[in-house]
Each structure stands twice: as C-alpha cells, then as structure tokens.
C-alpha cells in the first residue's frame, strides 16, 4: 500500500477531483468504516453499506472473504484495535470529556471524535486520502 507524507498520491488526485467531496472529519458510522476498509486496500466492489432489518442502523459489509462480514473498526476494538497496531502510529490527546484527538505521528494526519476509535479511524483515512474524500457510494 502506498502512502504519501503530504497530500494525495498524484494518480489518485485526478481520479478523485471530478466527484462530490466529503470532509474526513464528518465521516461517522458505516461511512467511516467503509473508508477505513478502502484505505486498507479493499476494493469498492467488495464493500457495501446496508441497513440492518427492523432498525435504522447502517453497517459496512465486506464481501471479499468466503462469508460476508460486518466491518466496524470505528466502534469495535476487536476490529479497530489491530489497525491501531499495524496501520497508524497513534498519539491521543483529550480535548474535553467528550472529544479526543488522534495524530498519526508518521504522516501528521489528525482526526477528532467522541471516542478513541473514531478519532483514530478518521486520522487513518486522512493519512491515506487527505482531508477530503469522494462521497460514499
């Protein structure tokens, strides 16, 4: 997987410029999980967002394996914790009782959120794609 210390990889910049954009800082829930999977290299055609039956809950589903599986690194330490160990050099700072900041010290990308995981996953997506990404399909 490629990483550019400052900015977006030149090949990705042209591809991403013509589509509607969303701020990484605004990503949450299934959309954040979708972009974490994309940042890890999972192709878009292996991911989809669905609504759990009889609820309003949206989840990211990864169908790249033999069995489709929920992918929720922004809310599950079982999924997000290993990403912190392998994909991001995280440094956390409490901004208030209800907000955390995470900085990837290798890329200087930052993310904020109400939990450690949300802040870290936003920082990870920002470290790969920059401050904005294309709108989630």
UniProtKB/TrEMBL annotation:
Source taxon at top rank: Bacteria
InterPro entries registered for this protein in UniProt: Phage_P22_NinX (IPR019701)
Official protein name in the record: DUF2591 domain-containing protein
Lineage of the species this protein comes from: Bacteria, Pseudomonadati, Pseudomonadota, Betaproteobacteria, Burkholderiales
């Amino acid at each position: 997987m490629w990483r550019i210390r400052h900015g977006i990889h030149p090949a990705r910049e042209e591809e991403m410029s013509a589509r509607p954009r969303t701020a990484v800082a605004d990503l949450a829930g299934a959309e954040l999980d979708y972009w974490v999977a994309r940042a890890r290299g999972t192709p878009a055609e292996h991911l989809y967002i669905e609504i759990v039956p009889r609820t309003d809950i949206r989840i990211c589903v990864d169908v790249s394996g033999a069995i489709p599986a929920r992918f929720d690194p922004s809310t599950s330490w079982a999924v997000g914790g290993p990403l912190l160990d392998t994909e991001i050099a995280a440094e956390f700072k409490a901004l208030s009782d209800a907000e955390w900041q995470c900085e990837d010290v290798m890329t200087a990308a930052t993310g904020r959120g109400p939990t450690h995981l949300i802040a870290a996953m936003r920082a990870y997506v920002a470290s790969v794609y920059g401050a904005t990404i294309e709108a989630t399909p």
